[in-house]
Amino acid sequence: MEHGLVPWSTLSTGFISQVTEHVKKTKAPQDATVTQKSLSLLELAVLNSQTLYTIVANNILFDDLIPHLSRGSEIQQCSIALMNALFLGAPPERKKRFEDSLSSKDVRIAILEKVIRCQPSGGEMLHQIYVFQQLTFNLLEKKLNTPVAANTDQFEQQLDHVDELMKIAFGNSTDSKKSSMSASKKLGFQDCANPINDFLVAPPGVLALNCMYYFATIHTGNYTRIVLENSCRGDAHECPFGKTGIALTNLLCSILHVGEMPDDSCHTYHPMFFACDNAFEEFFCICIQLLNKTWRDMRATVDDLDKVLSVVKEQIEYALKEKPSAIENFKTKLTALNYNEIQKRRQQERSIKEEIDSQAAPVVELRNKIRPEIIDLIKQQRFKYLMQGTKVPGIKANSKIMS
């Protein structure tokens, strides 16, 4: 069937329903081989037949698969693979159910504690964990591509969020229109009269507003510190929170490949996102503080935003490569990756690249080809210099130099 020689319609719905009974959590633990084969068969059925998908989706919940994450590595792998297959094959009318299942804290914690903390190995296991995480990141895509719009039910709440950003930063002194415009400008919004308009562009749309509001309300001390710190800087070096927050949201989604389908050959996942509630928002909160610090270290102006973001991107990617196990570990690693460290690494990478390029076959061939001509040219120049001679300045008795 996997090779297309026998159609999946050969399998009866009754048979598939019977197979689902072998993996339900209400059943007593089955023989490991039976469970593993059942999970594997259900995954293939889900991916290859819409009819069989419906049978499996009606009978299997993610909660049914959680107990299997405590069993052997092959069963763990097949369980996560079935979760991924159920989500990927979900028709529109079932999408919401599986989105809720995918983002379930119980499922995430089970994968973290039963699988990731046991140091999983094997390419297929790592790939399935990566796929699960990538699908979780992709749940952000809807907010990422949804601009703020006045004709939506959420618009009033979004207006309140923008007002709250200013009130938390500057207190209740923003009630008047003039003081509100002044606060909007200090926070770095482009449209000072109507700062909500800064979120009309999607991406990052409402996702940026949600992240900034989360930072202001959950990490209020750090938020007010950044705002006050920028208020004390000269206008030329002020880091605009509104503009940088929006740009950073786009950058983080790019780093995490939000909205992209999983890569069939990728095995890289980030454990810290399994270990944290509101993982993307917490990720944003740490990175906006990093951006503010890097901005200060670079003595940047608004015109340097792209340069600052390029440095911040490197800082984040270097830290993620070390696969921190928790969000606090990620924050610690970023502390060591300051702007000076990034400059050193860039110089090292440039030197290594130049060394590699100098040994490239075309470069070596060209060098060998022109070497005789260069040596001959040097000999001629030196011989002409000897022929022409030169004057050596002498010294008089009174120590004056004679020309």
Q: How are the secondary structure elements laid out?
A:
Elements: H1 13-20, H2 32-48, H3 50-59, H4 62-65, H5 73-88, H6 92-102, H7 105-114, H8 123-137, H9 141-144, H10 155-170, H11 177-186, H12 205-218, H13 220-231, H14 241-255, H15 279-298, H16 305-321, H17 327-336, H18 339-358, H19 361-388, E1 394-395, E2 401-402
Antiparallel strand pairs: 1-2
How many beta-strand runs?
A: 2
- Tell me, rounded to a whole number, the average pLDDT: 90
Silhouette: flat
Helix content: 55-70%
List segments where confidence is low: pLDDT < 50 over at least 5 consecutive residues: none
Strand order, main sheet: write it out. Answer: 1-2
How many alpha or pi helices? Answer: 19
Computed CA radius of gyration, to the nearest angstrom: 31 Å
Derived from helix and strand composition plus strand pairing, the structural class reads mainly alpha
- What is the string of helix and strand elements? HHHHHHHHHHHHHHHHHHHEE
Termini gap: 97 Å
Which range does the strand content fall in?
under 5%
Largest sheet: 2 strands, antiparallel
What does this protein look like?
By secondary structure, the chain is an all-alpha fold. Helix content is 64%, strand content 1%. The chain is built from 19 helices and two strands. The longest helix has 28 residues, at 361-388. The radius of gyration is 31 Å and the shape is flat. The mean pLDDT is 90.
